[in-house]
Fold:
Amino acid sequence: MEYEPVIGLEVHAQLLTETKLFCSCLTAFGAPPNTQTCPVCLGMPGVLPVANKKAVRYAIALGLATGCTISKTSLFARKNYFYPDLPKGYQISQYEVPICRRGFIDIDLEGEKKRIGITRIHMEDDAGKLIHDEENPVSRVDFNRTGVPLLEIVSEPDIRSPEEAVAYLRALRDILLYLGISDGNMEEGSFRCDANVSLRAAGEEKFGTRTELKNMNSFRHIQRALFYEIRRQRALLDAGEEVLQETRLWDEAKQATFGMRGKEEAQDYRYFPDPDLIPITVPDEWIEEIRESLPELPAAKRERFISVYSIPEYDAGVLTSSRALADYFEDAVKGSGEPKKVSNFIMSELMRELKRDERDISECPVTPAMLSELLVMVDQGKISGKIAKDVFEEMYRTGTKASEIVEKKGLAVERDEGALIALIEEILAENPDQVAQFKAGKTKVLGFFMGQLMKRTRGKADPRLSNELLREKLAE
Ligand code: ADP
Ligand code: MG
Ligand code: ZN
Structure:
C-alpha cells in the first residue's frame, strides 16, 4: 500500500526583546538562576502585567513578512494548567483571536517551489526551566525564562515529506533572522518545533490520525524523527492496526520516538481572555509604518541577485544565507564589478577560511573593499589567479591589503621582456634535446619550456608574453 505523509508544524521562536513580555525583567540568556525575576513574572497575586510593545511590533513584522492578515484587535488569553515551572498556574497566550492569521512561506526544493500555508501566529510567554539533578533526588527551577516572549507559528498541514519540513523550517528561521526579531539559536532553544504527522492512503482526501513529536531543536533531529515516525505509522497501518493519537518524544540516542501521553489524557486548558490585559489594537498607520521598515527578505534578495548580477540560483542561495553575507557580496561587487568572480571567490576561498576558524562573516579580517582590490589586480593581469589565492590567505591571516602583500613579497606578474628573454635563453641552452624535438615538429614540448619558466619565476611569468617570446626564440 502507498501512503502519503501529511505534516503540520508548530514553531516556537523566542523574540529578541531586551525585556520580558509583561514585565521589565531582562531576557538575556545564561544569567545566574532566578536573577531575572520580579513579582509579575513570578505570578504573585495582585500584580498587573503590561504588554511589551516591541514584542507586538515583532509579531506584526513576522506576520507581514509571511503574508498574514494582521488582526485589528487581538486578545491575550489564559491557558490554565499546573506545572512546577509555571508559577502563575497559567500561561498567557492568544487563543481565539491571534495577532496574525492566514499567511504562507514559499519553499524551494531542488528548484521546485511550493507554498506552505501558515494558519496563525500568536504571542505567548515562556515557562521556566526545571533542572533535574542526576545524582540526588532533587529538582531545581530557574524562573529567568518565565515570561520571555515567544511567537508560535502554526503551519497548515501542507507539508508532505521530512525534506519539505526542514526546508520550511529553514526558510522560517531565515526570515526571523533577516527581520532581526529572533536570534534563531536552536541550541539555546530560541527556535524549537513540534511536528504533527499522519499518513493517508495515496489518493485519499481525508487525513489520517496524527501523532505530535514534541520540542525538537535541531534540523537533523526533526528530519530523522519524522522519517522514523512515518516508518512506524506505515508498519502499523500495513499490519491493519490503528495509529494512536498521542504526543511522542524523539530520543536521539535510541533513534526512535516514544509515546509520552495520549489524547485521552490531553488537558482541557480552560482558556479565557486575561482580565488583566487590555485587547491589543493595531492602528493601520502602525501596520504601514512597520511594513515600510521591513528589510528585503531572503526570497526577494535571492531573486534580485539572480536577475541583477546574473549569478546562478545556487550562488544566490548561498550568498543570501545571511543578510551579512549578502551585504558583503554586494559591497565587494561594487568595488570590482565582477559578480560571478566575486561569488566564486567568496564561496570557495572566503567561506573555507571562515568555516575553518568557525568565524562569522562579520568577523572576517578581509573587508569587501580589500577583496575587490585583490580581484581587480587579477583582472588587470597584475597577479595570476593562482597567486591571488595565496595572497588572499595572507590577507585573511594578517589583515593586510593585497597590493602591500604583492609589493612586499614580489608576487607581481613578471613582464620585463629583457628578464624573461634572459631566462628563456638559459632554459633553451640547458635543454638542447627538447629544442631539437621542437624543431622536428613536436610543438608539445612548448609546455615543458613554459613549466621551466614558471618554476624559475615562481609562477609569476606573464603567460601570454612568455608564450610569444618562447616561440620567437625557438624560431631563431
Ligand atoms: P493542537 O492544538 O492539538 O496542537 P491544531 O489543530 O492546532 O492542534 O494543529 C496543530 C498542527 O497540526 C497544525 O500545524 C496542523 O497543520 C497540524 N495537523 C492537524 N491535523 C493534522 C493531521 N491529520 N496530520 C498532520 N498534521 C496535522
Ligand atoms: Mg499542538
Ligand atoms: Zn519579571
Observations:
- The radius of gyration is 31 Å.
